[in-house]
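Aim 2 progress update. The chain analyzed this quarter is reproduced below.
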Amino acid sequence: MGAVPRRAVVLFLSEPARGAVDEIRSRWDPVMCGRIGAHITLVHEVVDHERATEQVAAAAAATKPFTVRLTDSAHWGRSAHGVYLHVADPTAGLASLHARLADLEEPRWARVDFRAHCTLVHSRTTEATVAARAWAELDGFHAGWDLDVAAVDVIEMDELTGWRTVERLELG
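Predicted structure tokens:
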């Protein structure tokens, strides 16, 4: 029996925010852009796939669609660690959904405070010098893009093709 594939729970961006974010991602991090669509991660690494299926379905059913806004650019300590956009959550829909799913998180991720964000430049797929150039351009950038969230996706890593959706659940 092979290793259990890695799973995560994400909110994929809808248009027009997706197109705007992917324009940045394809310029500065084309590798990650090719592996996974623009998204906000709720659970980085699911510990129990079976329990996650039930818990994500219940959380989706109990959550009404909501709107968030992609806002200011930032980086994790330094640009080589990754560049991202903050996510404003005025109705707390995102925070509520995350709270319902947080106990699915693999312990090494669960120790890190949840910070809603949309990654633009990922540290695993972008050289430090490229990340520094990206940050020089994106420092002070304010997106101001609204994102209507109507579904949550459970995704799985395929080593050959990247991430794929295992299950998409509509909210409400």
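Helices lie at 17-28, 30-35, 49-61, 93-101, 107-110, 128-138. The mean pLDDT is 94. These observations will guide the mutagenesis experiments scheduled for the next reporting period.
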